[in-house]
Amino acid sequence: LKDKAGLYRFAPTGEFRRITLRDGKLWMDTFGMGASLLPLTPNRFRAGPTAEVTFEKAASGKLTLKLPRNNREDSFESVEAFVPTVQQLADFAGSYYSEELDTIWRIIVEDGKLIAIDRNDQKLPMTPTYQDAFTGRFQAEFSREAQGRVTGFVVHAGRIRHVKFART
């Protein structure tokens, strides 16, 4: 079971799942809700009353999590967890503007953690997930220019997808 634990990302939406091994069982965490995975075969598990998930090796050699939903099967590819240093977090600090929302969000580092501050001055803690991505009350995927400087991010939150923020 240990080889299945880790982060899995659905590339079209940036959505991800964390699979952990606790007390000899696999758990699927959707960052807000979790479900134990009951084994049916070595690579197939029941997640909840009717859903089944499957682990498979992709052509790239990476492990994928197959998750059926909305009359289709989505493939979440395993990604490496991002554990940034405080210095790396500083790369993300700055002001970002969303034309779509006509608002500015500030990103700061406070007590060794990344914090988004919205237009209402509400502090929204951000937890690192995979490279240049964070989650909290929303998911943010940061983008970089060729030289490595952070240029912006997109927000995903529930049915809200791909809301762009550009560094000011």
- What letter string, H or E per element, gives the SSE order? EEEEEEEEHEEEEEEEE
Looking at the structure, what is the overall shape?
Answer: elongated
Number of helices: 1
Biggest sheet character: 8 strands, antiparallel, barrel
- Structural class, please? mainly beta
Mean pLDDT: 91
| Poorly predicted segments | none
Rounded to the nearest angstrom, the radius of gyration is 17 Å
What percent of residues are in strands? over 45%
- Could you estimate the helical fraction of the residues in percent? under 10%
Could you tell me how far the N terminus lies from the C terminus, measured between alpha carbons in angstroms?
Answer: 45 Å
Q: How would you characterize the overall build of this protein?
A:
This protein is 3% helix and 60% strand. The protein has one helix at residues 86-90; strands at residues 6-10, 15-22, 25-29, 34-41, 44-47, 51-57, 63-69, 72-79, 94-98, 103-110, 113-117, 123-128, 133-135, 139-144, 150-157, 160-167. An eight-stranded antiparallel beta barrel has the order 1-2-3-4-5-6-7-8. An eight-stranded antiparallel barrel has the order 9-10-11-12-13-14-15-16. β13 (133-135) and β14 (139-144) form a beta hairpin. The termini are far apart.
Task: List key phrases describing it.
168 residues; mainly beta; 8-stranded antiparallel β-barrel
